[in-house]
């Protein structure tokens, strides 16, 4: 879980985010570790949203292109 968040693909970021949430929910961590995990979780969530926004844009572009060509999809 030490790799830079910016280098993670969607699945890796999502899986790490789930692990961070699990660790925070279990509790028993000191404040500094909890805060560090929370910050990492925020970064991971943002990265997931970036990937989803990119995928959404690609789908919209493909649909628009298909409509421009008269493809009834």
Automatic annotation (TrEMBL):
Its EC number is 3.1.11.6. One of its GO terms (molecular function) is exodeoxyribonuclease VII activity. It is found in: Cytoplasm. Its main location: cytoplasm. Bidirectionally degrades single-stranded DNA into large acid-insoluble oligonucleotides, which are then degraded further into small acid-soluble oligonucleotides. It is an enzyme of class 3 (hydrolase). Belongs to the XseB family. PANTHER family: EXODEOXYRIBONUCLEASE 7 SMALL SUBUNIT (PTHR34137:SF1). The keyword Hydrolase applies. The gene is xseB. It catalyses: Exonucleolytic cleavage in either 5'- to 3'- or 3'- to 5'-direction to yield nucleoside 5'-phosphates. Pfam families: Exonuc_VII_S. It comes from the Bacteria. Heterooligomer composed of large and small subunits. It comes from Rhodococcus daqingensis. Keywords: Cytoplasm, Exonuclease, Hydrolase, Nuclease. InterPro entries: Exonuc_VII_S (IPR003761), Exonuc_VII_ssu_sf (IPR037004). This is Exodeoxyribonuclease 7 small subunit.
């Amino acid at each position: 879980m030490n790799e830079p968040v910016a280098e993670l693909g969607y699945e890796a970021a999502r899986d790490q985010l789930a692990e961070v949430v699990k660790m925070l929910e279990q509790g028993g961590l000191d404040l500094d570790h909890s805060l560090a995990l929370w910050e990492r979780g925020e970064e991971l969530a943002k990265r997931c949203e970036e990937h989803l926004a990119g995928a959404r844009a690609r789908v919209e572009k493909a649909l628009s292109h298909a409509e421009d060509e008269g493809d009834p999809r």
